[in-house]
Amino acid sequence: MGRQSEAPFQFLVRPITTVNAGSKNLSWTFEAEVFSSFSDVTFSSPISGILLLPKIIDSSIASPTPDYVGYRKADNSMTVGIKIDFGLWDRSSELERLGLLADNIRCSLDKIKSRYLVDADREKLHQIIDRVQARLASQIQG
Prior knowledge:
By secondary structure, this protein is of the alpha/beta class. The protein contains 5 helices and 6 strands. About 45% of the residues lie in helices and about 15% in strands. The radius of gyration is 15 Å and the shape is globular.
């Protein structure tokens, strides 16, 4: 993640999971693909980054925490944590999990107020998410 720390805009996807969720590689790949798409994109939003925390929690192991959207003044960033239904995730194929993750990311971006993430930047991020999802889907189907 050294590249991200030097970038003008950080974008992190770090799932909160129970042991049996198996999502880390998919989320890290998604994050890396999204971030690599930033090379020719400029952002005008006042925030310096977004941390997304998709929550994939087996309620038989732990109680999921409520969804969360918050501004972190210390580093001028937004954090969003939204649940993904564990049962649906657990019975889904890798391609379906990619769709669940991408939908969670889109929904998370939509939860950030426009005063932090301007609508033009939100739209750019949605377009990037769409392209990354399509690219990763073709790799999975491969």
